[in-house]
Design a protein that fits this description.
Layout: H1 17-46, H2 60-140, H3 152-163, E1 168-169, E2 178-179, H4 181-190, H5 200-203, E3 208-210, E4 220-223, E5 231-237, E6 240-246, E7 250-255, E8 263-266
Length: 268
């Protein structure tokens, strides 16, 4: 007997072929199951599930309705644009009509004012002509009463204005070498200590009104209305006057018939 015969063997007991086969079958089934599950999971992960929606099929009737709706929309847009253009044209026409009316009123008012001014000017001219005709007639019949010789202060006034004959006429001037009508008359009366107003309108009312058929040397002649005279001069006797007439004649001595005055005032 061997000396190791009493020692148990440390080898594992051998399994039977049937046990091994059974265990292998179980393991294979588990692995197959895991493989199938894994494959299914991989397939699901790689290909997400999508849902397909079916769209309605565009039939001939639906296409016709869509085309009709598009045509109606286009026509509505064209009508809207046409109406907007008509409204803009109407507004522009109304604005132009308003401007034309205002311009026509303005022109009518200007024409009326011009006609009124012309009428007034014609009336004043006719009145002046009538007055001059009357005065000319009365002057021609009263020359004998207007031939007196100046004396005293009147002589000084007459001598002064005659000394300025030939001087220039300058509007607004008061000497010593140029004058306007009222400047000459004012300077003449200043020689005898009388202060007259500067303008012809005031000088025409500075003294007592006298008739043109009863003039005396030194009387102030005026043209236009008393208080609204536009020209003055000094009567120097013998049917003559001296005045600063205009830029063409300057200071000149003229007969009353040259330009018959409207009236006269006596200051002395």
């Amino acid at each position: 007997m061997s000396h190791t015969a009493h020692i148990r063997s440390h080898r594992k007991p051998r399994r039977s072929a049937s046990t091994i086969a059974m265990r292998a079958g179980v393991a294979g089934g588990v692995l197959s199951t895991l493989a199938v599950a894994g494959a299914s999971g991989s397939a699901n992960a790689a290909e997400p599930v999508t849902q397909t929606l079916e769209l309605p099929t565009l039939t001939a009737d639906m296409a016709a309705q869509v085309a009709e709706s598009a045509a109606a929309t286009q026509q509505a847009a064209a009508n809207y644009q046409l109406q907007a253009e008509r409204d803009a044209a109407a507004a522009k026409a109304a604005k132009q009509a308003k401007a034309d009316l205002a311009e026509a009123k303005k022109k009518a008012a200007a024409k009326k004012a011009a006609q009124e001014a012309a009428r007034q000017e014609a009336a004043e001219r006719a009145s002046r002509n009538a007055e001059r005709a009357t005065l000319s007639a009365s002057t021609s019949t009263s020359t004998s009463t207007s031939t007196s010789t100046a004396t005293g202060s009147a002589a000084d006034i007459v001598n002064f204005v005659r000394a300025q004959v030939g001087d220039a006429y300058v509007l607004g001037s008061s000497g010593p070498s140029s004058w306007d009508c009222s400047g000459l008359v004012q300077a003449a009366f200043k020689q005898v200590g009388i202060d007259l107003p500067r303008v012809s309108q005031s000088q025409s009312t500075a003294g007592s009104q006298v008739s043109l058929d009863n003039l005396l040397p030194g009387d102030i002649l005026y043209w236009g209305g008393a208080g609204s005279a536009y020209h003055v001069a000094v009567y120097v006797g013998d049917g003559m006057f001296v005045g600063a007439q205009n830029s063409s004649t300057g200071v000149a001595e003229k007969p009353l018939s040259y330009d018959p005055p409207t009236g006269a005032v006596r200051v002395l």
